[in-house]
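Shipment paperwork, digital attachment
Item: protein structure file
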Amino acid sequence: MNIADALKHGCITLKNSESPDIDSQLLLCHILICGSNYLHTWPEKELSSEQQQQFDELIIQRQQGKPVAQLTGQRGFWSLDLKVTEDTLIPRPDTELLVSLALEKVTSNMRVADLGTGTGAIGLSLAQEVSNIRVFASDASWQAIEVAKYNAVQHQLSNVQFWNGSWLDAIADKALDMVVSNPPYIKSDDAHLLQGDVRFEPMTALASGADGLEDIRQIIVQAKRCLKPTSWLLIEHGYDQAQQVMTLFTEAGFITVSSHKDYGDNDRVVMGQLPS
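Attachment content:
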């Protein structure tokens, strides 16, 4: 089997996937340790029997629904390549909006908390873009913290501190200049939890009570305590939750509250500022 044959086989086997061609390319690149350009440049390159077996095994697992990011152990986010495991949420392009909005407000020497850091995607992206800020990244899962720490070391980011705990429990009053979070926000009985890639991701990083807003409520209350006057809170939410989240921000006393759409034109992030 050569590269062209392998890609054709992958596409046929994964015909029910949303992107069989991309999935096949990513998995084959992982096996061959190469970029996609290599696949198109050398389509007649023969695979070894071991490479063919590895590819077949990954294709079968993908056919069964396991996410590509978990099969390859990595996912690109912002400008970083991040290690991904079954203990972390898979970073998604829509969450890059949160990074972009945060960077518009970040200034030198800020102390920024990334809550529910998972792979570290948000916090590490901010730490890389602005080297003289201090990022505090938390997660209730110590397994996720270990993954985030690994990613920080791989990208030589020394301006990030990690802790294993619930949201802002370990942070002192008025200690932060910004809080960012992509928390769980799916309703606990939502049928989507039984579909697609999310079936293989940690439920604690996805579901948040009957209306999906339990964790967001906690974060807003705690952020009001931990943020300094005029500081910012930015939270990612579900496509249909913008108005509810904006109301929670306003009721908690935040001002300049605004909603922002992701690249798919869905409401995705609410941000607000504490008054002076």
